[in-house]
Design goal:
147 residues; mainly alpha; 6 helices; 0% strand; elongated
């Protein structure tokens, strides 16, 4: 009952301000003020104010708002975790499959092993004793290129 009285008073005050504004030859502003001032009385007449008053003092309604808040919190948390992990479960499976298929070179018949984990203890080439061998290798390369 008090809410309806307050809404009626706000509407009456708004219409009074709109009348004063129209008297000052500001008709566009007066029309806007009148439109805004008619909203509270319209809400009272449609029953929205009564519904809001019943909802505001209802324990069940507040419990429902609490459940909606918990639902929103869970949804937000799961979305944040999903973004941090890199997508949905389906997207992660597709990424794993793509990573496995990248291990095989396009023209290779067997999968490549990637970088080795063991360190080789022996040198790749044995040191040569004579300096003539070094020059013979260079001569072979130069002959191969026609120089």
């Amino acid at each position: 009952m008090i809410a309806e009285t307050i809404c009626s008073a706000v509407s009456a005050a708004g219409l009074g301000i709109a009348a004063v504004t129209a008297y000052r030859k500001r008709f566009l502003s007066a029309a806007r003020i009148a439109a805004y001032s008619l909203v509270p009385i319209g809400l009272v007449m449609t029953g929205v104010v009564q519904w809001l008053a019943d909802t505001a003092f209802s324990v069940t309604a507040w419990a429902g708002f609490g459940v909606l808040g918990v639902s929103w919190l869970l949804f937000s948390t799961t979305r944040a975790v999903e973004r941090r992990r890199g997508g949905t479960r389906k997207e992660r499976k597709e990424a794993k499959a793509a990573a496995r298929s990248d291990a095989v070179a396009p023209a290779a018949s067997a999968p490549s092993l990637g970088p080795g984990t063991r360190v080789a203890n022996r040198p790749a080439t044995a040191p040569r004793s004579g300096s003539t061998d070094d020059f013979s290798d260079i001569e072979a390369i130069l002959k191969k290129h026609g120089i």
